[in-house]
């Protein structure tokens, strides 16, 4: 009887492990790319840019990562419609910005008026700033803004008007 119970427990354990492995392989995440690659890719296929400014010690950045950037709706819209670039404001590496000048990531965040983290800035494929999202945004509100930009609604109506139409 003990052997039978042990066999059943072992079988259940292996079955759970198998399901977990399958789900893990299907797990999606935002495909963050370097700023350089985003600019290069934009020369081939025009898409807006999504710049996410963060700091490794920032609690709200960590919450955005866990509660927003790992959600299916967010992952799908960001990967499909944007070039996502994650920028550590504490980083000393330099990036070549749209204007052709090189900036440290810290200096770039100052230049773009990033006053705190997290801050998301959306740029058009034509390299014009569309919208800035300062601070923590929940999944639904973040998706609303991302769709407003992805569908190019920002060209014809305010976010407030778009929000009222959707809700």
Automatic annotation (TrEMBL):
InterPro entries named in the record: Thioredoxin-like_fold, Thioredoxin-like_sf
Keyword Chloroplast included in the entry's annotation: no
Protein name per Swiss-Prot or TrEMBL: DUF255 domain-containing protein
Signal peptide range in chain numbering: 1-21
UniProt keyword terms in alphabetical order: Signal
Domain Thioredoxin-like fold positions: 45-142
Any Pfam family the entry gives: Thioredoxin_2
């Amino acid at each position: 009887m003990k052997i039978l119970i042990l066999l059943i427990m072992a079988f259940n354990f292996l079955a759970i492990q198998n399901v977990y492995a399958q789900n893990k392989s299907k797990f999606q995440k935002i495909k963050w790319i370097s700023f350089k690659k985003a600019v290069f890719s934009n020369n081939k296929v025009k898409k807006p840019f999504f710049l996410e400014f963060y700091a490794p010690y920032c609690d709200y950045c960590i919450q955005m990562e866990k509660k927003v950037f790992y959600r299916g709706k967010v992952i799908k819209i960001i990967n499909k419609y944007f070039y996502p670039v994650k920028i550590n404001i504490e980083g000393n590496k330099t990036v070549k910005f749209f204007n052709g000048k090189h900036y440290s990531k810290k200096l770039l965040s100052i230049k773009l008026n990033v006053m705190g983290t997290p801050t998301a800035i959306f740029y058009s494929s034509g390299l014009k700033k569309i919208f800035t999202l300062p601070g923590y945004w929940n999944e639904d509100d973040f998706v609303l803004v991302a769709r407003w930009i992805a569908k190019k609604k920002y060209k014809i109506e305010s976010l407030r008007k778009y929000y009222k139409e959707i809700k």
